[in-house]
Write a structure and sequence with these properties.
Structural class: mainly alpha
Number of domains: 1
Number of helices: 4
Radius of gyration: 12 Å
Shape: globular
Largest sheet: none
Helix content: 55-70%
Distance between the termini: 23 Å
Length: 75
């Protein structure tokens, strides 16, 4: 687990980290990422920071693309 950034940088970090998690191919959508950020990485406000439809749609798209690459064996 990574060290938490300073309070003022947490939202920016969470949004960046959410995209990293989406690109990992381990998640099917934003909800799993939000859960990971809240309960595994300890960012209680992750839901609020991801609670914006364009952000959720982007994360879902990245997840689908990452899953497709994983299925095809493309790195």
């Amino acid at each position: 687990m990574r060290a938490k950034p300073k309070k003022r940088d947490q939202e920016e970090y969470v949004l960046r980290r959410a995209k990293e998690l989406a690109e990992s191919g381990r998640f099917t959508g934003w909800m799993g990422i939000e859960f990971e950020l809240r309960y595994t990485e300890g960012f209680e406000l992750a839901r609020a920071w991801l609670d914006y439809e364009p952000v959720r749609e982007e994360l879902d798209l990245i997840c689908r693309q990452a899953k497709a690459r994983k299925t095809l064996g493309v790195v």
